[in-house]
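lol forgot to send this yesterday, sorry. C-alpha cells for the thing we talked abt
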C-alpha cells in the first residue's frame, strides 16, 4: 500500500513486536525501560529509519501529546499497566485471535527472529547509543532533529 508521496505506508514491522524487542534488549543491558522511554526510542527509530531507507519502520500512527511529546497509542495502551515504573522483560504475551467471530485469547512466546539481521544490528546500535541518555534528552532529539509524525 502506498500513500500520495509514493512511499510504502504498510510499515515493515509490528510496533508491539519492536517494543518487546527494545524492552528485552534494554533489560538485558541493565537499563530500566519505562513506557515514556519506550515511546521516545520508538519515535527516534522511526524517524531515523525513514531518513535512511525512505520507508516506514512500522505502520501505527504517532500522535503528539502536549505533555509527553510523540507517542504511539497502541504501545502506550499495551504497557500503561506499568505506569511510570519499569517494564520487565517479556517472554510471553497475550494474543487475541478471532475464530468464527468469537475472540480467543492465548499466550504466545516472544521470539525476536522477526527482525532482519541488518535491521537488528542497526536497532541494537541505536539503542546502545541512546539508551544511557536521559528521557528528556531523547525527547529533545525527537523534536530537534525534525521529527514529524505520519498522519
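and heres what i got for the seq, position by position
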Amino acid at each position: 500500500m502506498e500513500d500520495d508521496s509514493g512511499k510504502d505506508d504498510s510499515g515493515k514491522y509490528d510496533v508491539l513486536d519492536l517494543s518487546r524487542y527494545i524492552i528485552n534488549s534494554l533489560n538485558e543491558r541493565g537499563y530500566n525501560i519505562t513506557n515514556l522511554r519506550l515511546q521516545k526510542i520508538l519515535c527516534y527509530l522511526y524517524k531515523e529509519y525513514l531518513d535512511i531507507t525512505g520507508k516506514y519502520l512500522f505502520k501505527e500512527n504517532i500522535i503528539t501529546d502536549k505533555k509527553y511529546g510523540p507517542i504511539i497509542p497502541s504501545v502506550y495502551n499495551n504497557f500503561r499497566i506499568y505506569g511510570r515504573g519499569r517494564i520487565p522483560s517479556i517472554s510471553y504475551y497475550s494474543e487475541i485471535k478471532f475464530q468464527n467471530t468469537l475472540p480467543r485469547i492465548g499466550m504466545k512466546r516472544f521470539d525476536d527472529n522477526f527482525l532482519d539481521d541488518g535491521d537488528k544490528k542497526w536497532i541494537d546500535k541505536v539503542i546502545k547509543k541512546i539508551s544511557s541518555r536521559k528521557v528528556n534528552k531523547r525527547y529533545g532529539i525527537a523534536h530537534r532533529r525534525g521529527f514529524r509524525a505520519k498522519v
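The longest helix spans residues 35-53. anyway ping me if u want another try
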